[in-house]
Amino acid sequence: MGVVVVMPEANAAAGTLGAAAAQSGRYFGTAIAAGRLGDSTYTTIAGREFNMVTAENEMKPDATEPQRGQFNFSSSDQIYNWATQRGMKVRGHTLAWHAQQPGWMQSLSGSSLRQAMIDHINGVMAHYKGKLAYWDVVNEAFNEDGSRRQSNLQATGNDWIEVAFRTARTADPSVKLCYNDYNIENWSYGKTQGVYNMIRDFKSRGVPIDCVGLQTHFTGGSSLPSNFQTTLTSFASLGVDVALTEVDVTNASTTQYAGLTQACLNVPRCVGITVWGVRDSDSWRSSENPLLFDGGGNKKAAYTSVLNALNAAGPVTPSPTPSGGTGSPSPSATPGGAKRIIGAQSGRCIDVPNASQNNGTRVQLYDCNGQANQAWTLTSSKQLTVYGSKCLDAAGSGNASAVQIYSCNGQANQQWNVNSNGTITGVQSGRCLDVWGTGNGQQVQIYDCNGQANQRFSLN
Ligand code: XIL
């Protein structure tokens, strides 16, 4: 009698947008402007709330190739470094677009413009090779009626978009390649159908494309259509990820913000949501007060409506892709039958930072995202391989030796026993794979086995 049973809280609500989205394997991002990184109110909010970053202007053609053949990554790297130092991922935006072209590109046409586009894609993607989660390869190529926009790029030939995607795939096979546009949220709209038909055609002909970004600017006269989820599902059923890439909403309507968030959560291949700025005062449409924080940096009602929707959806138990299934794979499943290595304490995945393929890159914990840098294969010779030819590798055999990736060499510091008690032990050291914390970016090492949850992992 009188005994109080304290149940562990099964559904502890996350307190930030990024953590709340991560519960269902998604991200929550923002556009960042390099010029605002000196504003501590801005960086405090952005660093706390988000786990994905898009450069608002700094990765566009005019910024990255101001003179033909002369690339400038000073502002884009500022944003890239700011984000990745905080464990955030980065979406590249954008490589081929009719707007924000440098002057020299605007004055080109025909085959020289086509070559300049290819050179631009190669130059920018080489700089960020292996470092980005997504690239908006082509931006805003359609008219409202679903026909192609008559830009200088379009005038180089109708195949310019597929040439851009093929060039991009070769330049960096590790990054997901997206087509990005606005006013493609309403399923019965001409432009939506035009983009849909292009993606369907690309998929049927093997043109490489991995994702569609719906800008989701519910500003400037647009608003949330009731069939938004149908649009997301329809694109996803073509075999691409979908994402909401530049969200803003006139006067930050709480119902529209909650509705667009819920639509994404309801679609397994909707991988994340990015808002187009931090505070209303940072917005490109600031007169519409369209963002989640007011000019003073305070959370608005729309913030709470989004956070609540995200929290109501998660957490989910990660599960592998059903083999042979026809449904959309979960955003947290890995490609190619490889497994995730999921920490029992953290729920996070063993991850190669920035999808680096460099020998000596130390692995970390990170929100599971189903990408190749979290996809491990246990071989019959006890190796845990990633990207095909890199192995999980102990940099030494003593306590706290780093665990990194390295070209597979058959040696014992690259062999692992996956044990029935949940530990993974190094064949050379006999020590356990171990992490000292649970957060994104926690580094992985080997340590004396101690039976605790920070040394237990599951492969699935
Ligand atoms: C906008 C930026 O927010 C502004 O700062 C800039 O002056 C113009 O571009 N679609 C896109 C984004 O893909 O790149 C645009 O960003 C907004 C519309």
Characterise the protein shown here.
- Helix content is 25%, strand content 20%.
- It contains 11 helices and 21 strands.
- The strands form 6 sheets. Strands 1-2-3-4-5-6-8-9 form an 8-stranded parallel barrel, surrounded by 5 helices. A 4-stranded antiparallel beta sheet has the order 13-14-15-16, with no helix packed on it.
- α8 links the parallel β5 and β6.
- The structure holds (3S,4R)-3-hydroxy-2-oxopiperidin-4-yl beta-D-xylopyranoside.
- The site of (3S,4R)-3-hydroxy-2-oxopiperidin-4-yl beta-D-xylopyranoside has 7 residues, from loops.
Residue-averaged pLDDT, rounded? Answer: 92
Silhouette? globular
The main β sheet shows up as: 8 strands, parallel, barrel
Q: Helix content range of the residues, please? A: 25-40%
List how many beta strands DSSP finds: 21
- Given as residue ranges, the uncertain stretches (5+ residues, pLDDT < 50) are 317-335
Q: What oligomeric state do these chains adopt?
A: single chain
List the helices and strands and how they pair.
Layout: H1 17-22, E1 27-32, H2 40-49, E2 52-55, H3 61-64, H4 74-85, E3 89-97, H5 103-106, H6 110-127, E4 134-139, H7 160-171, E5 176-181, H8 190-205, E6 211-214, E7 217-218, H9 228-236, E8 241-249, H10 254-265, E9 270-275, H11 301-313, E10 341-343, E11 349-351, E12 364-366, E13 377-378, E14 384-386, E15 390-394, E16 403-407, E17 416-418, E18 424-426, E19 432-435, E20 444-447, E21 457-459
Parallel strand pairs: 1-2, 1-9, 2-3, 3-4, 4-5, 5-6, 6-8, 7-8, 8-9
Antiparallel strand pairs: 10-21, 11-12, 13-14, 14-15, 15-16, 17-18, 19-20
Helix pairs in contact: 6-7, 10-11
Bound molecules: (3S,4R)-3-hydroxy-2-oxopiperidin-4-yl beta-D-xylopyranoside.
